[in-house]
Design goal:
Blueprint lengths: L9 E6 L2 H12 L5 E3 L11 E4 L9 E6 L37 E4 L3 H11 L2 E2 L8 E5 L5 E5 L2
Parallel strand pairs: 1-4, 5-8
Antiparallel strand pairs: 2-3, 3-4, 6-7, 7-8
Length: 151
């Protein structure tokens, strides 16, 4: 049997204020927020949903920003290594560990220093951990790591 046609079309990012975070990425990437919806009944004013759509030359896939009632900023790099299933590993042990980034955005830039300055001007911060010379690890205003890289 031939595999069905499956395409990755978007990445969804959880946060406590999705429309605010979408505005940050729209400014950073020089695109418009395509969709912005307010909170549903009973949700706080910062809740809702927003989307940045693919745009030639700046965004290769759609970015969705969704409200998470229990959002906590990711922890990166992992503060400790634990074997799967071990106490504190987040496996089936029943013990929770701090949330950590499961995915991050990699953003190609033509000038790393200029892109870092621009990201900071948009509201990002530079992460303390910088593992490579050709990559800058940044944190968006809600604590998600993203990487600026030249290549």
């Amino acid at each position: 049997m031939a595999p069905p046609r499956i395409r990755a079309t978007s990445v969804s990012i959880s946060t406590h204020a999705p429309r605010e975070l979408a505005a940050f990425y729209a400014r950073l990437l020089d695109v418009e927020v395509a969709v912005s919806e307010g909170p549903r009944d009973g949700e706080p004013p910062a809740a809702g949903w927003a989307q940045i759509r693919a745009a030639e030359g700046s965004v290769a896939m759609t970015l969705n920003f969704e409200w998470d009632e229990h959002y906590a900023p990711p922890v990166w790099p992992t503060p400790h290594a634990a074997a799967p299933g071990a106490a504190g590993s987040g496996g089936n042990s029943g013990t929770l560990r701090p949330q950590q980034a499961m995915a991050h955005l990699d953003l190609w830039v033509d000038d790393l220093d200029e892109a870092q300055v621009w990201a900071i001007e948009c509201g990002a911060t530079t992460h303390a951990h910088q593992p490579q010379e050709t990559v800058r690890v940044m944190l968006d205003p809600h604590g998600h790591p993203f990487c600026l890289f030249v290549g």
